[in-house]
Design brief:
mainly alpha; 0% strand; Arp2/3 complex 21 kDa subunit ARPC3
């Protein structure tokens, strides 16, 4: 299966998994796992920036259409897609990224992938939850939601590296 077909399949599976299964999981009213971010996280290093932004837009729009949330996921995923190249540069190994590799635990190790995932997930959740609330009145309870959901999402994403995305 080619890389384009694999990414289209991954896009569809992650969006459906998110909206049909994971959106129905809420722990204590604070923790919701958002695993659809895996699509952006696992994009090849060489992906052009414009394509990352378009993919982020389509990913967020797909989730927004299913969840009836007017642009909140779209805004958060476009922000993540915009910041992804900067985060990859920030976490780059000393010698840079090897050609023909992907942002996976297999290539760069657990610690690298955990830092990268936590940064992306925290940015996404911060933008998403504060857009949802759109006020500072509940700042600390929203911050708690960001923190707890980020831990759950990042743990689920990292675990997926060992059980699903071992390629």
């Amino acid at each position: 299966m080619g890389i384009i077909a694999r990414n289209i399949f991954r896009f569809i599976v992650l969006v459906l998994l998110q909206v049909l299964v994971l959106d129905n999981v809420m722990i204590n009213g604070y923790m919701v796992p958002y695993v659809y971010l895996l699509f952006l996280l696992l994009m090849p290093f060489e992906t052009p920036r414009w394509l990352q932004l378009v993919a982020g837009f389509l990913l967020g729009l797909s989730v927004d259409l299913f969840e009836n949330t007017p642009g909140m996921h779209t805004a958060a995923t476009v922000l993540v897609a915009f910041l992804r190249p900067h985060l990859l540069n920030l976490f780059a190994p000393r010698d840079g990224y090897e050609p023909e590799t992907f942002p996976r635990v297999r290539y760069y190790g657990f610690y690298w992938f955990l830092k990268y995932t936590l940064a992306v997930v925290m940015i996404h959740h911060f933008a998403l939850f504060y857009l949802e609330v759109f006020q500072l009145k509940d700042f600390f309870s929203t911050l708690l939601r960001v923190f707890l959901s980020s831990i759950l999402s990042a743990a689920t994403i990292v675990l997926s590296q060992f059980f699903v995305f071992r390629e």
